[in-house]
Amino acid sequence: MRGPDVPAKALDARALAALAANPGCRRRAILDGAGVDKARLASALGTPSGFGQSQFALTRGNAFEAKVKADGGAELLRLAHARLDPGAVPPEGAAVPDLTAQGPEGRTARTALALREAVDAGGWTLLDHPMLALDVAGSLAFLEPDAVVVHPDGSWSVVEIKSFPVLDGSADPAKVGAAARQAAVYVLALEDVAARLTPAPRVHHRVLLVCPKDFSNLPAGRAVDVRKQRAVTARQLARLTRIEEIADSLPEGTCFAPDRPADELTAAVEAVPATYAPECLSTCELAFHCRERAQAVGAVTRLGRSLRSELGGLTTVEDVLSAARGESGDPDDPAVAALRRAAALRAEALREPGGRAPAPRTADGPPGPRAAAPADAARPEVSRCR
């Protein structure tokens, strides 16, 4: 589906978290499952996206991560001990196993072996960029967390390193929430590895978030509870339609290769239904394309998921306005009844003090002529105010 000689784009935890946040989008599910580079696809469709991190942010993040993991991860393990497991013995001389292997499958197997050996050995162990696998709607996704820490009691913790700062002890809540959703995907993948061991090690639901402190490059650690994000992500991933079912519903020969003609590529993308929401602008490379299509058909999804859920079977803005005017819709439908009540309240609120309704709009758009109000009525009573 992604085209001949087109390398697959691997799924990462950030993409999985975005996919779980919008499980009804079959378009993203099939494109991510097929390994399609959505950024190249968006450019080929004529709607390039500015989604993604800048090169400066990537460079700064890599430099900060290298500083945190210097000296065998001594500072990182110190933060893990202080924030996650202060009752354990201090991490002195922790093991840092080599996770090098051929291909993602080999690295996944090597990571599982290193985790098993760390549990048997006891003590602190730091796994730098391990490889985990997670089944997503019938497609295997390989995930690479920043680090995984094995505690002396054999339990496991996820470490997420971010370059956004912690200012006066607090960080941007939106960025912390995004990091928590990403870490929750790693927790799910770690739980799959732990389930294959006997006895199964405990996977902590409190992850270590490491960020620069204030405006310096010094690391600051914070324990983040991701139980809620883990439960939501697990439930949403389980609801995803399997990739095979979506592929079977597509026309024969559907291909998303970016070198295809624009009209053929557009037809291929439109063959898969999408569920656009404003949140997609910060999580999906195809958001601009889907927003244009949603605006063209007047879909209410572009107004937000909460509003879409309130409107029930009314899927377009024209349907909503028609129901509010009383021209269509079932009066017993709670959404239709609420719209008509809101329209009546609006008309009452806009009615002029003398009981007259607002002047109707003319064909050109502006309101028609209305009788001039008395001069005294339009002038404020300054003396009374004084």
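(the above was protein one; protein two follows)
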Amino acid sequence: MTEPALVYDDVAEAAEAPVEAGHDFIPLSDPDITLAEIGAVDAVLRSPRLSNGPLTEAFEEAFAAYVGRAYAVAVPSGTIGLLLALKAYGIGAGDEVIASAYSFRETAHAISLTGARPVFADIDYWSGNLAPVKVEERITRTTRAILAGNTNGHPAPWSELRDIATRHGLVLLEDSTEAIGSRYKGSLVGSFGDVAVFDFAQPSLLTCGEGGMVVTDDIDLAVTLRRHRAHRLSERSSVVVGSAAPYQAGISDLAAALGLAQLKRIDEIIERRRLVEQLYATHVQSFEGIKPPYIAPDVTEVNWFLYLVHLGTRFTRSSRDAIAEDLRVEQVEAAAYSHPLHLQRHYFDLGYRRGDLLVTEKIADRAVALPFHTHLTDGEIEFIVETMKDASINVGAGAAIY
């Protein structure tokens, strides 16, 4: 987090600041924290209630209104939020949930935590989201739900996914952990699934340290989610409520205060990140052989989670890793955007192997996540891109046709 004295009041001032030789470490993410957030947290620290207080409910109401849903339930993380949603729908052992293996945030782990089986479908080459035709191919008699994410901020093809879910009588779960503020056909993400899950940990543009939110329009589902999450102090003597064992999965008023302050500034934060995106776009124009950012025709607005560079086909996974390492040597935090879930040990033990999801593997092997936050300067972005270009030459790939 940047110290308050170093927060730029004028975004243009940040954009013009040069990068010096021997520069400081450039992190992958850096929350946009101002005196407003610090004041909100300070007020809670001076109050007699740090948890189970009124700010969590205020945050829930404000976030539901922002997304345009009737109900919101605050949770510790997107993974826990999805776990509670699956439990609320009665999904567990013997059931299958179709999901994507291409994700930076491993929300899909919640499927395994319920005892259900994750069934991975391949993704669209351009958007990185689940390909509807691949989803339909995976449906069986034990399929209960489709979990689709708005990958790196790019909305999924929700109209097609909704049609598939309706025809097959499936629950449509929306993973919006990477996409706060993006829009599909004019509507904000989080408004398309029967239930949608958000996450407020870094590198989310809205952060409250750790935390998440589940949103829905179904009052019965919202009540069930709350009962699975935790019991209120006033409900401890209730025989009805006491029949369900909760996970004690709430958030503190400290986290809620930070999240609420961030939500009030969300338009400002998004605008600051757009400037950084524009600076990146200017500098990467000279980087030959990379896949340009893609926005699907039905997508109204994309607020990227991280700035992803998709390397050309002459690059290999090992050369991508070497480029990321060269960036780290130069004090720039970079990472592979995704280690596909189906190639991780837990899912490997379920029978998945390399070659099962060819598009997922091709994209994941060549995607590099670069620093993306509001405190980046034009000079820093130029340095990041030039370092990456030099590193690509060092690994011998040169210009590559995507």
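Reviewer note on protein two: The chain has a mean pLDDT of 89.
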